[in-house]
């Protein structure tokens, strides 16, 4: 897996457990269903089937790939709208080019993150560059949707490009796990992502037979999605494997352990760790719009149809059509 790597022996370490820490119990394990998104790239709906009270403020998260495209086959999305939340795209392998109607955009490369605050609304596109479409290749990443509270639903749209070298790197207490902190705070160390809704987003690699036990903010929820490998979660050591999500209960510490033996194509237990401060407001979700009431959704549809969420610019990036198609 080509995400950022580092020598954990040289990194700051999160503190080990101590007397008085409250371990978060595992409430549920769910398995992500598979589907297609955009122009037809395969995804796994990591948060599907979990009650929103356990997810709040997260709306959805798609694991995009992992897929090794033949030449001419890489796919992305066409121009489409968003309103009322933030999208976070984290790439592990491959590339995407992005453009939106508020001037945001750039190339998302391996290990980098694109953070887009849709707020009051915009149109955007995410598509692989021409060179990657023509050559094919490995593609793997995640897109997370983070809700905005009612007071921030109509913020002016904003774009953040977080390069791989900006991500905060930490190690577990014994150095057996690498933590890539994209956003939020872990044991006093902050990731570079600037968030309207307080959250923590981490990509953790736990080496075979090793355990990650780390402090977690008590007022946040806690979710762990396994993108590769197998292991256990919680002190009760509940089994979990690739494509599954663990929902944790209350407490101030989370624990995950990698199995001694991983499958032939997996070198470690790879996990996306999520936590956020629940917004606890009504939420209605229809396609690319996340609002507080049905009336707001209806108005958003009218605004989109009348061009108030933006118009595709004359210099717009478009999905590359490979030669011979």
TrEMBL record:
Lineage: superkingdom: Bacteria
Family matches, as InterPro entries: Pirin, Pirin_C_dom, Pirin_N_dom, RmlC-like_jellyroll, RmlC_Cupin_sf
Pirin N-terminal domain mapped to chain residues: 42-146
Domain Pirin C-terminal: 202-309
UniProt-listed Pfam families: Pirin, Pirin_C
Family affiliation: Belongs to the pirin family.
Record-given protein name: Pirin family protein
Organism: Jatrophihabitans telluris
């Amino acid at each position: 897996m080509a995400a950022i790597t580092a020598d954990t022996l040289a990194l700051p370490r999160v503190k080990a457990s101590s007397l008085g820490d409250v371990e978060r119990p595992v409430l549920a394990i769910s398995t992500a269903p598979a589907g297609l998104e955009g122009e037809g790239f395969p995804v796994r709906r990591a948060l599907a089937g979990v009650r929103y009270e356990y997810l709040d403020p997260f709306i959805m998260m798609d694991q995009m790939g992992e897929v090794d495209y033949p030449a001419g086959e890489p796919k992305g999305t066409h121009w489409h709208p968003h309103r009322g939340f933030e999208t976070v795209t984290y790439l592990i392998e491959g590339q995407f080019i992005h453009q939106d109607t508020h001037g945001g955009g750039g190339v998302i490369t391996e290990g980098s993150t694109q953070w887009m605050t849709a707020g009051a609304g915009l149109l955007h596109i995410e598509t692989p560059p021409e060179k990657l479409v023509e050559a094919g290749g490995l593609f793997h990443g995640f897109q997370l949707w983070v809700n905005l509270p009612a007071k921030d639903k109509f913020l002016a749209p904003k774009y953040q490009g977080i390069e791989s070298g900006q991500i905060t790197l930490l190690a577990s207490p014994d150095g057996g796990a690498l933590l890539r902190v994209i956003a939020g705070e872990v044991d006093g160390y902050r990731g570079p992502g600037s968030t309207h809704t307080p959250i923590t987003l981490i990509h953790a690699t736990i080496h075979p037979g090793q355990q990650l036990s780390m402090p977690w903010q008590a007022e946040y929820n806690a979710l762990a999605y396994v993108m590769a490998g197998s292991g256990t979660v919680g002190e009760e050591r509940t089994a979990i494997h690739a494509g599954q999500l663990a929902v944790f209960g209350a407490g101030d510490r989370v624990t995950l352990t990698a199995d001694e033996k991983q499958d032939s194509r997996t070198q470690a237990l790879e996990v996306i760790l999520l936590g956020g401060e629940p917004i606890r407001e009504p939420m209605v979700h229809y396609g690319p719009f996340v609002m507080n009431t049905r009336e707001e959704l209806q108005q958003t549809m009218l605004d989109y149809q009348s061009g108030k969420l933006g118009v595709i610019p004359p210099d717009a990036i478009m999905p590359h059509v490979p030669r011979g198609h």
